Amino acid sequence: MTPHVAYATPSVLIVREARERLRQIMTSFANGTLDAEMQAYVRKVDSLYPPDAVDLDMAGQRRVYRDLCEAFAPPYPKGVKAETASVPGPAGSIPIRRYTPSGGPGDATIVYYHGGGFVVGNLDSHDSVCAELAEGSGQVIISVDYRLAPEHIHPAHYEDALWALRAIAAEGRSVVVAGDSAGGNLAAAVSIAARGTSAAPIGQLLIYPGLGGDKLGLASYRTHAEAVHLTVKDIDFYKRARAGGDPPMGDWTYAPLAATDYRGLPPCIAISADVDPLRDDCDEFVQRLRAAGVPAVWINEPGLVHGYLRARLMSSKAKASFSRIVRGLLTLARREPVACRGPRRRPPLNQACRPSKAKLQRGSLFGRGQGQQSRARLSWGARFGSQ
Predict the structure, then answer these.
(1) Mean of the pLDDT values across residues 353-366?
(2) How far is it, in rounded angstroms, from Cα 16 to Cα 285?
(3) pLDDT given for residue 25 in this prediction
(4) Helices H, strands E: what count in the chain?
(5) Do 191 and 262 form a contact (C-beta atoms < 8 A)?
(6) For residue 54, is pLDDT > 80?
(7) Is 46 a catalytic residue?
(8) Which neighbouring-strand residues pair with 299?
(9) pTM of the model
């Protein structure tokens, strides 16, 4: 007897996907991966950006994402000033927003690229994040509103990011590049592109970036393939949307881990969420930088999920990580050391940088004793390698 085959409609598939995502979330809750604060955060995000939002057109998805970001946006810190302007780009003006902290411009300008999978996000989506980073670090932050897919495919996003960096660097101040998720990808790519030029950054800070590690078979793409708020299927969708089809191969402007030469790049602080398929991109990138003689540190944040910057007012873990990001920006802006001293070897994956085994340099990223408290994963070079 021939079995009956039922073909699911798109709406049925969306419901099934939503149920599977819910099952994954509940599994994370049950096994203790996420604490009560992060569980509450996940529930709030899912109430605002439900899995069936993928059934909306791009304008609808951007509207839902805008509402989500607004729901997690506190007022600016007192004294922060913001000014929206533009710089020349390859296809017209690129909108930017400059945040000046209450204490003045500080040591350097931080060029920030927002996340959103290259399809959502703008100056407003990360407005409160940039304002808090500016005041916390005491540095000017300039957020860049690069073009988005699918209307503009690769290399439009990268080109906008690079043109904005060059224009801002031309102001004459030292520049640090930073970004989250897709923005972390852009920050890493423009650091490679600007190497050896007058626009070269003095540091790069990458927050749960996607750097192309899926092509390398990294473990996190298997262990967290169905992670909360970012799955491997999501990553594949964003990659194809960005490329307008099949992603390019061997193109470091698209995937910085496709580069073959990392010499002469600026010091790097790469921060990952542990419950995230992109987690091991940070480890791999930092290892390659260290092998090329570049000071670099990997900080992994246990119990946090992709996109946790929005959780900083709901989760003590996210708040602590945000503080480390602020200190990281200040460290890079002041050209201070970012690494631990000690014998040159790679630690076990789950082992933290313990002060009893590796004393931190004065003025380094964590400060005295903070390595143990943060339980941050560091690369072999960053944790134990000397400069």
Answers:
(1) 35
(2) 35
(3) 56
(4) 12, 8
(5) no
(6) no
(7) no
(8) 271
(9) 0.84
